[in-house]
Structure formats: structure tokens, C-alpha cells
Amino acid sequence: MLNRIIRMAAVACTLSILAGCTAKLDPAEEGAISFSAWSPLLRDDASTKATTESFVSNDDTFSVFGEKVSAGTHTDVFIGTVVGHEYQEDGGIVVKDSWSYTPVKSWSWSSLSDYYDFVAVSPANIGTVKEDAVGNLSVTTHYDYDNTSEAAPAGGDKYDILGSTYRRSGSDQATRQDRVSFAFSHMGSAVAIKIINNSTSADVTLNYLQFQNLVVSADAKVSLDNYGSTVLRWANLMPSSKEVRRLSPGKTINHGNNWTSEFQIMIPQNLTYYEPKLLLNYTVAGTTTDPDVEIPLNGIERDDGTPITSWEIGVKYIYIISMRLDGGLLVTVTTTPWDSVEAETPGILI
Question: What would the mean pLDDT of 297-312 be, rounded to a whole number?
């Protein structure tokens, strides 16, 4: 934060509604625009990220977009500028903890009615662009499970996309030079699978699990509404019958034990339109058959009897598959906002 005394100059203005008098600000108030991201989603909070090893973490970076709005005119200030974090300790004492970018831009207040809008997306360098549309600042990032281009991670996009916005008004005279602090929110949903082997004698090897009939590509959009509040949404959703997000752990689950996958980041979506499924293949010890199980994702109910019909932004879903080798599989699901208390649902019998 800029630590300096701000010299306030008296503003002389003859009040005249007809003349449309505008209060001018002292140019000495102008200074460098600086950022911070105190959100634990970017730092020291691995439990909120996609923990599958093949997923890319949000490595303390974000792209920032910003514009100044003065007398109805929108002027670009930042277009995808990368902001990085530097952190250093010496003997357990933090000696550096800052966010920086280049080239440095400065505030340029000309009226009390001016304001700046900012949008930030993490991680940086994931193709986020400003939308070419009339209205408030909005940016979009394409996300694709099946993106196999050389520029994308193998097997598609695998990162926990985060978004944040901020509006700074010229009328906030005491704070308009302060650091812009972003509080990031998850854009995706997080889905994990827990397998419980309830057999009293037989071990089970989980060969693979994967999803089918999901929306596999979409655009994550982060914008501000007319009141300066954050708007997070997804658009241009594209479904596919391809099998995606495959896990092949080859994990043996001994009788009476369980195994839980890491969270997979998913595009929030309706679970009724395309009959999405979780596909499971496993082998019971002492047998030569590999049962294939299709679990419909739109048939699992909440504790009040209503089905879970969608994956929502910023919500974690843990699908619990209880193997009763003499009587099928019992599937339940727990849902919770990230880092909140889990609430169980009764589930369905497959």
C-alpha cells in the first residue's frame, strides 16, 4: 500500500446544476496502481485446489483487466497484465510478501464521478480475453476437457479457474489510492469419487472410472454488474458423448477399507439434459470378470427427496459408492461449498 501523506487541495466550484459543474481533484493525489490477492485460494490452501497430480495449480499468478470510466467514456488501463507474487522468509520472518507487474500504471482521477473497474482471473496465461461488448467490463476464458493442442495440458484443460472483480470510485477520497485487493472465487465445480468396499472377505481392484455425456467445453465469464458487484457465469456450453476425466488408479481396495480420488475440476452444468454418467470398472479378487457399471448422475437425490440436477459454481461433490458385492452398489453424494461442512444425501441403489 502506498504510504504517504495525501495533500488535499481546496476545490472551488460555484454550484450550478444548469452549468453541470464538475469537482476537480488535486493531481498530487495520483500514484501507482497496486494489487494484492489475500485470498487463500491462491496461497497456502492446497485443499481448495484440484489435488490430482495431473492438474495445474494456481501458481500465485493472475491476469488483470482494468478500465477507467469517466463521463461515460471507458478507457482501457490493463489488458491481461500478469501479476505475480514474491514471497521470502529469513529465519522464519517474512521479509517479502508482494504482488507486482510491469509496466506500472498510475491512477488518473479527474472527477469525483470517475471510477475504475478491474477483473482478475487466475492462473495467468490461460487465454483470458476482454469481451468486445458495450457495457461493464467483462472477460472470458475458454475451458475445454478435450483440448489436445500443444499449448494445452495433455488431456485437456486441468486447472482450478478463479475469478474476482473490484470497483474503485473517485468519491472514496480517503481510499482511492489504496491497493486493489482481489478476493477470488472458484469458477468451477469440484467432483471426487469415494469407493467403500463393504465386503467382509473379498478385495476389489478399481481398474478405472470416468465420466460420459458431459458438457466438455464452455466459456467462463467474469464481469461486473451496474452496481459494481461480481458476476460469475458460464456460456457457450458444448456437450459431448466422449469419455472424459478418466482415472486409472489400478487401486486395490481391501475388504472393509475405502479409497477416495482427488477432486476433479468440472464445468458447472445441468445434469438432466444429456444423461451424464459415471462409468466404473472393477475386478473382485478371485474372479476373472470386470464388471462395468454406469451410474446416472441425474438420479441421485438430496435428503429432501429432490434430485441433484446440476453442478453449481463453487460447490464440491463427493460421490460415495458403497460396494456390497452380494447386492449391488449403493451410491450417495455429499455436497458442500468449498471449505464448508458436508451434508449427506440418501443416494440411489444401482
Answer: 80
d(CA 305, CA 276): 20
At residue 104, does pLDDT exceed 90? yes
103: confidence class by pLDDT, cuts 50, 70, 90: very high
Q: 132 in the Ramachandran plot: left (φ > 0), alpha (ψ -120 to 50) or beta?
A: beta
Query: For residue range 252-270, what is the model confidence (pLDDT) as tens digits?
Result: 999 999 999 888 889 999 9
Answer for the pair 340, 303: CB distance below 8 angstroms, yes or no: no
- Other CB atoms within 10 A of residue 289 CB: 8
pLDDT digits (tens, 9 = 90+) for 22-57: 444 444 455 899 998 865 554 433 344 443 434 444
248: pLDDT strictly greater than 80: yes
Predicted confidence at residue 38, as pLDDT, reads: 60
Record the pTM: 0.80
Compute the distance between CA of residue 243 and CA of residue 50 in angstroms, rounded to an integer.
20
* Contact assessment for residue 206 and residue 105, using Cβ atoms and an 8 Å cutoff: no
Tell me the C-alpha distance between 350 and 338, whole Å.
28
Backbone torsion region of residue 339, taken as left when φ is above 0, otherwise alpha when ψ lies between -120 and 50, otherwise beta: left
SS (H, E, C) the chain: CCCCCCCCCCCCCCCCCCCCCCCCCCHHHCCECCEECCCCCCCCCHHHCCCCCCCECCCCEEEEEEEEEECCEEEEEEEEEEEEEEEEEECCEEEEEEEECCCCCECCCCCCCCEEEEEEEECCCCCCEECCCCCCCEEEEEEECCCCCCCCCCCCCCECCEEEEEEEECCCCCCCCCCEECCCEECCEEEEEEEEECCCCCCEEEEEEEEEEEEEEEEEEEEECCCCCEEEEEEEEEEEEEEEEEECCCEEECCCCEEECCCEEECCEECCCCCCEEEEEEEECCCCCCCEEEEECCCCECCCCCECCEECCCEEEEEEEEEECCCEEEEEEEEEECCCCCEECCCEEC
Give just the sign of the alpha carbon dihedral 51, 56, 62, 63. Answer: negative
